[in-house]
Amino acid sequence: MNYYSTGKASPPVDLRTAVVHSLAPDKGLYMPERIPALPSSFFEEIPHMSLVEIGQNVAFALFGEDVPKADLDRIVREALTFDCPIVPVEKDIYALELFHGPTLAFKDVGARFMAKLLGYLLSHGTASQGGEVNVLVATSGDTGSAIANGFLGVEGIHVWVLYPSGRVSPMQESQFTTLGGNITAVEVNGSFDDCQALVKAAFMDKELNSRMFLTSANSINLARLLPQSFYYFGAYASLRRQGRSEDVVICVPSGNFGNICSGLIAKRMGLPVSRFIAANNSNDVFFQYLRSGKYSPRPSVTTYANAMDVGAPSNFARILDLYGYSHERITEDIEGGVVSDSQILSTIRECWKKNSYLLDPHGACGYKVLSEGLRPGEVGVFLETAHPAKFLSTVKDAIREDVPIPERLLAFSRGKKVSVPLENDFNAFKKTLLDSLK
Ligand SMILES: *Cc1c(COP(=O)(O)O)cnc(C)c1O
């Protein structure tokens, strides 16, 4: 399979190039040249399949031309060592819980798959420039921990996590600043958008790229993005088993729009979903686009759902591309909604009181927008993207009760924080990277 750039100004590339380079030379994002439709036999069998088996089938359709089936099956098995269950929350509303992995958030799925696939591609292609591959990742909280933990100890790969100082929760911070080894945490005096801009600038810097091998693990990377489609099919399989798979609506709390983009790709592969809903926090650039047809990125503002604090969602380019740049076609498949900070708190409180289901601030955006948008006869699923204990102070404030913390999280917070402070300045970042070669 070849991959083309959404920028349309660079030539198509093979899987290895797309994954190793992340971004096309024209600054576009790579898209698969064909989105394969899954065979009807797959949909006949799907209720009887495990999540790993589902993932292996979907992965084979996407990557089967380029990676031998036995290797692909192993990569999926090693990435999906945990379940993504569907849990009933109230009448006609289910939570798809994506927080049962090592860092208790959905990005574990894509991060672990990408680490294994990149490991495979690096050990099977012609050698890269020699020396280490440097994975640069900008994080508003959860990406950094998922990537750092997914790649921890992977030989030949060094991970640099850039995060906005003081804007991620202490619990999130501990998950990528305490690991050591091949993981370096860079604490940027700026916002998440600044971190993302520094990473993008690094990929475009000729000198840096001639001296070091750089790649990304944000959802701009295909290998992070595409495996996220697995759990959409997994959710559908569970609904089929429960006889609830007619007229399914899926609501995705969105920031960079990678998660919803993988759902839209799943739909294109044949997943029977009526429509998607994108839930925004106050960073509602996409919602405004749905309304007006105009895309006006702007600086992000800080909210309780900080992994969605994105002012210029990178996967917007992929969504436009997927729908042939038609606002009309996009609004046929995707609706939107916005949740303010005070609504995040009241939603967590009300859902806890009413359903004894504890939401995290991101899931709260999904649940609220879904409950308001669901029509009679529809079955609604919202993605619960992180464990509520990852956002302890917000959740505690909302329900005014103690929240038990899973041991996995406590173990991180007992570690010693080590970070490299950095001003929001590209030359300073470049120097930090180059100094690591000495
Ligand atoms: C990253 C993240 C999101 C947003 O996902 P995108 O793919 O960037 O849209 C939502 N919730 C949580 C908990 C996240 O970590």
Q: How would you describe what is shown here?
A:
This protein has 438 residues and is an alpha/beta fold. The protein has a domain at 83-105 and 225-403: 3-Layer(aba) Sandwich (Rossmann fold), CATH 3.40.50. The protein has 20 helices and 14 strands. The protein has helices at residues 15-21, 40-45, 51-63, 69-79, 107-124, 142-151, 170-177, 192-204, 206-211, 222-225, 229-241, 258-268, 285-292, 316-322, 327-333, 341-355, 361-373, 392-399, 407-413, 426-435; strands at residues 2-5, 13-14, 30-32, 86-90, 93-97, 133-138, 157-164, 183-189, 213-216, 248-253, 275-280, 334-338, 379-384, 420-423. The strands form 3 sheets. A 6-stranded mixed beta sheet has the order 4-5-13-10-11-12, with helices on both faces. Strand 7 (157-164), helix 7 (170-177) and strand 8 form a beta-alpha-beta unit. The radius of gyration is 20 Å and the shape is globular. It starts with a strand and ends with a helix. The chain binds pyridoxal-5'-phosphate.
CATH topology-level name of the domain at 83-105 and 225-403: Rossmann fold
Number of helices: 20
Low-confidence stretches: none
Q: Give the CA-based shape.
A: globular
Widest β-sheet, arrangement of strands: 4-5-13-10-11-12
* CATH class group of the domain at 83-105 and 225-403: Alpha Beta
CATH architecture of the domain at 83-105 and 225-403: 3-Layer(aba) Sandwich
The percent range for helix content is 40-55%
Hetero groups in this structure are: pyridoxal-5'-phosphate
Q: Calculate the terminal CA-CA distance, rounded to whole Å.
A: 39 Å
**Major beta sheet summary:** 6 strands, mixed
SS elements, strand count:
14
Rg over CA atoms, rounded to whole Å, is 20 Å
Instruction: Provide the structure class.
Output: alpha/beta
Beta percentage is: 15-25%
Task: Name the average pLDDT.
Answer: 95
